[in-house]
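This section describes the prediction task in plain terms. A model, or a person checking by hand, is given the sequence of a single protein chain and must write out its three-dimensional structure as a string of tokens. No templates, partner chains or ligands are provided. The sample shown here is typical of the held-out split.
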Amino acid sequence: MGLMTTISNWRSGRKAGQELTSLEADELGALARDVGLSADQLIQLTERGARKELPRLLDAVGLAPERIGHTYPDVMRDMSIVCSGCAVARRCRRDLDRGWVPVVQRYCPNTETIKALQAERCHVV
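The expected answer:
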């Protein structure tokens, strides 16, 4: 990812987060409830993004993110929340760029959920 893309993504996330925090508390709470999150989770997801690493990892292990989102929307939402709060996102991105999926699975907080989804056969058709 280029520097300008990184800066643009960062600005977009900050702007979206600022728009949310400018809402009245009851408006923010209602919006968060509509999507099944707490207000803090919604702000975190908006500011940090759900991360692009999650769909990349799912694709790399043969799972279909769209299928998971359709079949298990709550699971996909929860994995996105976990991913957005991950402290090692930069390492994950680098390891995925190198094709080191087994390495990522050693430290990814979503690994157990991903294994369960593999057992449920949410694979790419």
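For orientation: Residues 69 and 76 are 5 Å apart (CA to CA).
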